[in-house]
Amino acid sequence: MEALRQYVFSIVAASMISGVVMGFLQGGTVKELLKLICGLFLAFMIISPLHQLDLSDFAIPGETEKQTGQDIAAEGKELAEEAIADIIKAETEAYILDKAAQLNVELEVEVTVSMDDPPLPMAVSLSGSISPYARRRLEAILTDEIGIPKENQAWTG
């Protein structure tokens, strides 16, 4: 703020000096020449602070900033994929528990989701007491409806 005050003060002072000098002359060629000199002096006073500007503040982002932006974008994409995988995992577990409840079976379910694009349920661990009929029905649901092959279905209990 002090620099701005000093800048304005120097322009006002230069204008006043030019005005006083111009006021003493009557006219003619000397006054025209002095008017040109005073105009150049004022222009110099206005433009002179420009040499102090740091033009690097206005530079186009370089490779470092570009790489940082790409890293942040990649991290955001990874976080979004993880969030989608978590949602798919929770929804699949809820679906399996709902189907088990329809068969009057209480199970603990843990679904493993692949991190492919798109993320899909790839394996499931089920534990709990279950009748052979209910197990066959749930195996069929897991295989046919959800797409988890029998070899990726781990049953305990």
Protein architecture, described:
The chain is mainly alpha-helical and 157 residues long. The chain has two domains: 2-58; 81-156, ANL, C-terminal domain (GMP Synthetase, Chain A, domain 3, 2-Layer Sandwich). The chain contains four helices and three strands. It has a three-stranded mixed sheet. Helix 1 (2-24) runs antiparallel to helix 2 and helix 3 runs antiparallel to helix 4 (132-146). The longest helix has 40 residues, at 63-102. It is rod-shaped. The model has no long low-confidence stretch (mean pLDDT 85).
Residue-averaged pLDDT, rounded?
A: 85
Order of helices and strands: HHHEEHE
Separation, N- and C-terminal Cα atoms: 76 Å
User: What helical percentage do the residues reach?
Assistant: 55-70%
Q: Helix/strand/pairing class, anyone?
A: mainly alpha
Main beta-sheet annotation? 3 strands, mixed
Count structural domains.
2
Radius of gyration: 39 Å
Q: Uncertain segments of ≥5 residues (pLDDT<50)? A: none
User: How many β-strand runs?
Assistant: 3
| Physical arrangement of strands within the biggest beta sheet | 1-2-3
- What CATH architecture label of the largest domain applies? 2-Layer Sandwich
CATH fold label of the largest domain: GMP Synthetase, Chain A, domain 3
| Helical stretch tally | 4
Query: Which strand-content bin applies to the residues?
Result: 5-15%
